[in-house]
């Protein structure tokens, strides 16, 4: 089973996770820019974070044969903080970088006027930079959040086929299905979607434009729930080709719209499932090959 996790915050995960993910078939990931769990106090803090998810993190992933790309944005939560908003001026520079495959996560948290403004401004950036957009949908008041997000997307003029609305569930999936946007589902250990619920949604809506991710971060989450979903699909009678479509070909198709997805060496359908990627293949978005150092540092204890 080859797996592409289209939404995972690897910077908050350990090397053990990379090992387990590679062994489970995860060969590629996209890391969306998000908040830290506590407020940032200046745009400089974003710059270091962005540099890390397009520099150090791809290097770290490559040590385990996992290809890493990123999406860049001011996240919905921090769009409300006047200390953070100047980062909007920094974004165009980052959106030109090789390993950046979308603008995201953007969208709504509490649906404030400040979020409206940041959301629209960043959809405009996606259009300008010819990048797809990854839209986070709010965890509270979900249906209204999705309806409003779809309205902002429509107003922006971006092609809906270049937009994914993420963190959907049974209540919101239908609203997005008819919009032409992609549908993203985050599979969590005990909230939101579970593998069996995801299987039901795939039965209902089919496999087209469907993306499944773990959205694993520093909170309670599990980077192997993509694999668990693939297994639940097989048990429910989906074919191996259906699983490959949902867990590999769909995210590839979505992010390839950036023109920057580089899966050389990890995308061979016949490669033995598991580790994926040959150590040393490296290369994506400036990712360094396995081994060696990044800015003089390695993942080895002691730094070299
Ligand atoms: Zn996220």
Describe the protein's architecture and organization.
- With 304 residues, this protein is of the alpha/beta class.
- Helices cover 36% and strands 13% of the residues.
- It contains 10 helices and 8 strands.
- Strands 1-2-3-4-5-6-7-8 form an 8-stranded parallel sheet, with helices on both faces.
- α4 links the parallel β3 and β4 (100-107).
- α8 packs across α9 (225-235) and α9 crosses α10 (240-256).
- Mean pLDDT is 92; it is low at 273-288.
- The protein binds zinc ion.
- Zinc ion (ZN) binds at residues 7, 9, 32, 34, 105, 215.
Our Rg estimate from Cα atoms comes to 18 Å
Strand content: 5-15%
Overall strand count: 8
Bound molecules: zinc ion
- Helix content bin: 25-40%
Indicate the low-confidence ranges by residue numbers: 273-288
- For the record, give the distance between the C-alpha atoms at the N and C termini, rounded to a whole number: 34 Å
DSSP helix count? 10
Give the neighbour order of strands across the main sheet. Answer: 1-2-3-4-5-6-7-8
